[in-house]
Amino acid sequence: VPAEKILSGVAHERLQVLQDLNDLGAGFKVASMDLEIRGAGNLLGSEQSGQIASVGLELYTQMVDRAVKKLLQTESGLAPEDIQVRLDHIEQSIPESYIHSSSHRLSLYKALGTLPTKEELWEFRNGVEDRFGILPESVLNIFRNAEVRLWGQLHGVEKIEHEKNRLRIQVKDASRLNHEKLVGWLCEQETPLSYIPENTLDYKNVPPEMNAILKSLKILEQVFTV
Fold this sequence. Notes:
The chain has 9 helices and 5 strands; from the N terminus they run H-H-H-H-E-H-H-H-E-E-H-E-E-H. The chain has 226 residues and is an alpha+beta fold. Helix 1 packs antiparallel against helix 2 (26-37) and helix 6 (118-132) runs antiparallel to helix 7 (137-154).
C-alpha cells in the first residue's frame, strides 16, 4: 500500500493478512485472523485442539460457527452471512486476469464476509485496489453485494432478491418497519411499492444494475425505523 494512503489500523491488518496468505488454507486463516483483529482472541488456533478432542470435531465446528455469528451480529440478531441475497443478471466474480492466485481470490471472498461496516468495506476495497489495480466491474459488484448484506443487517432484513426489475425485501421483524410511513407510501397513486404478507416489500422499476439496486435500498430506508 503506498505510504501516502491512509488506512485505519484494522483495515491495514486485514490487507496485510490478504497479502501474506497464499496457500490453500488461506481462507480459513483469514477468517481466524480477522477474529483476532476484532479482539476475539485465538478462537480457531492450535491451542483449541484439546477442546476439539473433548467434544468432537463436528460439534466443535458448530460451536465455533455460533460464536463467530454472535460476534458479527447487530441489534437485528442477524449476521451478514444470515442474509440471503439473490441478484439475477448481475455478474459477480474475481477473474484470474485480475488476481492470478486462486488462494488469493478465495481469501478475498472470505475477507469480505467479515467486514462489519460500510466504511471498513470500502476502506478494504481501496487497499485491494492499491495492490491489484483498478477493480473490474464484476469485482466491484462483489463489494456492492457485501454492501447490500450490510444494509440488510442494519435494517433487520433476512432476504433481498432482484429479478425482472423488481426488488423484494423480506423483513425478519415487522417492528423494524415504520408502519405510518409505509401505509402512506402504499396509498399514493401509481406507487412503485407494494406489500406482501409475511413482511415482504416489493419495489418495482429497478434495473438489473448494482447502483440502481443500492439507490433503491437507500430510498426504501424511509419505511424503516432505523
